[in-house]
Design brief:
This protein is of the alpha+beta class and 164 residues long. The protein has two domains: 77 residues, Regulatory factor, effector binding domain (Multidrug-efflux Transporter 1 Regulator Bmrr, Chain A), CATH 3.20.80; 71 residues, no CATH class. It has a six-stranded antiparallel beta sheet, covered by helices on one side. Pfam families: SOUL (PF04832).
Length: 164
């Protein structure tokens, strides 16, 4: 399930998008179904799509398998949309701490630099419309031992790998 946001800040977009998704999980859907929370919370960054050519964001949660084929319809005021991802390959870089405006771009740049010296040097952003995504695995109350990842979509075939 996806919560679009055109907020200027990664942190604010993630917070507000997650709040809408959490309401959905707690029963703000046409079935009043309560849905178990999954991880990660994924915020995808789409550069230049927001106001004044700033970034736009999609905050996403995976639904448990039970709801994937037929997700409960969210209440219209939540502005949520089902989001299906086809099989694809991603390059991942882990980082700790909190994912914030001041470090997500830096972590994405580190992954891009690492990929520039690999077989995937020219295969990022394929065929994705997202620049990158940030996966956050821990609740905000966990201070130590936090796990986050930056994800780039990559073209598996350019490196001789098949996606299934």
């Amino acid at each position: 399930m996806s919560a679009p946001s055109d907020d200027i800040s990664f942190h604010v977009a993630t917070k507000l998008g997650f709040h809408r998704l959490f309401q959905y999980l707690m029963g703000a859907n046409l079935n009043s179904s309560r849905i178990r929370m999954t991880t990660p919370v994924l915020t995808s960054i789409v550069p230049g799509a927001g106001p004044l050519h700033s970034s736009a964001y999609f905050v996403r949660l995976y639904l448990p398998e039970k709801f994937q084929d037929s997700p409960p319809v969210p209440l219209p005021e939540l502005n949520l949309h089902p989001d299906r991802w086809p099989s694809h390959c991603i390059a991942v870089r882990s980082f700790s701490g909190y994912a914030r405006d001041n470090n997500v771009v830096e972590e994405a740049e580190k992954l891009a630099l690492s990929l520039s010296h690999s077989p995937w040097a020219n295969s990022t952003n394929y065929p994705s419309k997202n620049a990158y995504s940030i996966a956050q695995y821990n609740n905000p109350f966990r201070i130590i031992g936090r796990l986050n990842e930056v994800w780039f979509d990559v073209d598996c075939k350019s490196a001789g790998i098949e996606a299934y």
